[in-house]
Amino acid sequence: MDALRKALGALSVAYALIFFCAALLHTGLALGPLHQPVIVPATIVETFCGAVLLIGARGALTGRPWAWDGLIYTHAGALAGVLMGVLALAFGAAETTTLNTWYHRTMAMLLIAGLAGALYTSRLRR
Fold this sequence. Notes:
By secondary structure, the protein is mainly α. Helices cover 79% and strands 0% of the residues. It contains four helices and no strands. α3 packs antiparallel against α4.
């Protein structure tokens, strides 16, 4: 279980970096060939999701007593942010791009997998 905790912590750092890059893209800044339309609410949500995931990663990588609960809550919170983005795009709140669609689908699947792993291990600990 210790290896899974550390792996989920490291993945949380990677996910946070992806969220921060997406937030930068939604400010209108181009990162190499990647660019997105300016969407201020997306920038706010993605920055928040990235920060939350870093908190969970810190708990997991430093072996805090709340590490598993932190991984569950932070993955669930970030997944809620991604699903909010999916709904916003579905209702036409912003321009839909191929990159945005791919990003939301990929992040949702990664966060669901991480949440499942954290919930599974949390159940084993009882």
